[in-house]
Write a structure and sequence with these properties.
Strand content: 15-25%
Helix content: 40-55%
Oligomer: single chain
Shape: globular
Structural class: alpha+beta
Strand order of the largest sheet: 2-3-4-1-9-10
Radius of gyration: 30 Å
Number of strands: 18
Length: about 700
Amino acid sequence: MRLFVCEKKTQVQKIAEFFNLKYDAKENVAKGKIYGIDSVVVPLAGHIMRLYKPEEYVPELQGMSWQTAVEKGYYPFIPKIFKKKVKTKEEGKQFVKEGNRLKAIYTDYPKYYKIVKKYAMKANEIIASPDPDTEGSALFREVIAHIGVLNKVKGYVRLNKLEKKAVLKALKEVVRDNHHNVMADAGEARGEYDWLFGINLSVGAKVFLTKNRVTLHVGAVKTPTLRLVVERDKEIENFNPETFYGIKFTVEKEGKTFSVTAGIKEKDKSKTEELKKYIDKNIEHLTVDEFKKEKKQKLPPLPFTLTELASTVKKRYGIPIEKTMQIAQKLYEGEYQTYPRSDCNYYSSEMFEESPEIVKNLFINNSEYEKFEYIIDTKRKSKAFNDKEVDKKSHTALGPTLKYPKNIDETSFKVYDTVVRRFLAQFAPSMEYYSVRGKASFEKDGEKIFGKFGAISVINKGFTEIEPVSSGESQEEIPLLSKGDKLKIIKTEVTSHTTKPKPRFTDNSLLDAMERIARFYDDPLIKEKLKENGIGTQATRIGIITSLIKEGYLEKKKNGVLVSSEKGRKLIEYLPEEVSNPVLRAKLEEDLDAILENKINRKQFLEKNKRIIFELFDKIKEKGKSVLIIRKNSKPTKKMINFAKNIAKKLGIKIDKDTLEEILIESDVHYDLIEEILDKLPSSITKEKLQKLLLE
């Protein structure tokens, strides 16, 4: 029997559908013959394994404070061999909003593991079938290795496309080389590096940079993200606005009026007003020096990645980014939309082949879409359909499927409709327009003073009938002009422009900045290695921003802007510069590329990065000798005090008033509070026991 192990159950469901396999909904398992071979297809649920915690390697660390652990030489903590275990069902707990309430849902990781193990033990050969990237390869191999059947793995298939033709082809063409193991090495190496970075540098920051041990959170992606906001905030606060004055003309030719902006940028308003008076008294016409009219076209914008979808929906409808991501996931689970956590802007050729049926189905189910039938041609192939670009990624861009959502709420439909319109735009003609550009001038004291004018004139709206776009350009009607033509001045006015700093980040723009972080730095390594994917992933970025807010490093204002808190600024200020600099992430990506290219192996990668962790830990220690110590100065709220009292009561311990206040002042979130209380408790009371008590 051959076993295919996929990353998620939707892949299993598609394979079952396309091969007419028997699908067991209870186990999410498909059984039957695939190309004549008895086969079973099973899913994972993303990473169902996790790395051990330090106290699971060294039991003595259970209940020991980080300060004591550092003094005893346990940190930096570098395991000789990284170990993994299956996540508990409790670790799969998430909260989703239902109305005004939060509902807990669970991913039963042990169940997934049990099912994979059951069939892996029976299989003659196992075929890796997760997403075709380093993370997918790693989460497949870690499970198979833990079960102990790596010797049964005989190849892998690429399931980054879920259109029927692509799936049938992928499962027929099993790749027999070792590249999936190399990808798994890179994926596991990344996870181990992030673990070493987060665990050790958070301990170092807390012990060496804080007074009374305020917990600080240092992360390989989280900290560079925080730095982006801190640097933007400081740039805004140190910005000195300047006001410049200019001249704007309203001119007329052949009964048509339009604007000409003089090339004047003067800080002295009185000088500009004097010039206006001179013009009003002495100048009746501007003379055309240059004129150019070109016919141009604008192609449809590429389909959405998840980040771009969330950003667009936020701008158009004000729907929170996290809400859009949840809706996109539900639309995918309902089989109305393709896999949402995509960072790809392209569709596959198989998607193009299925498009006539998808478009026809959209027209049948929605009269608003049917209105665009006159401009849509499913034989028209836009640049969005590009297999080479798709093969660089784990998934295709977001798009609709053959299944239409007839009974979804208004908010969900807005998300769906945004994706559909971008998809339909790929089959519409380009927008055609005339671009008019020119220069005109007048003379003063023998010197020519030039002005510019320009506008666009739309000839054919094309795809913008479906997906409106703003050109940001004037659409004034400018007549055909020739060099030397006279433009009669109808009006002259003094204009002013005050320079402004870049705007503060919102969750929307910060997501975009994480994806395009290379734009913010001049370092060539950052530009090369982080240009393609930025930092974080489509699945993790919003969670990182949320945790920065929750942990008190960022504050979200009523108008939606994100501002760095004093705590966040101090963390970036007090950490060694290298810790928050994205160049560290760029170097990591360079090393991971080296693994993929077989230039170094995983062991060499880890040895190098273990040394880096030791160096950064020592730099934090050294920095702690010279910085002002971070501490939280605010008084605890009544709610916080009651929370701590309830913990103490459940544990049957007494916390005096001074200790209680000290704990609460130094703690930022509930988990920090738990940790601080643990430092004052006997080692027999574990963090897990405390959390269990709190959940009762």
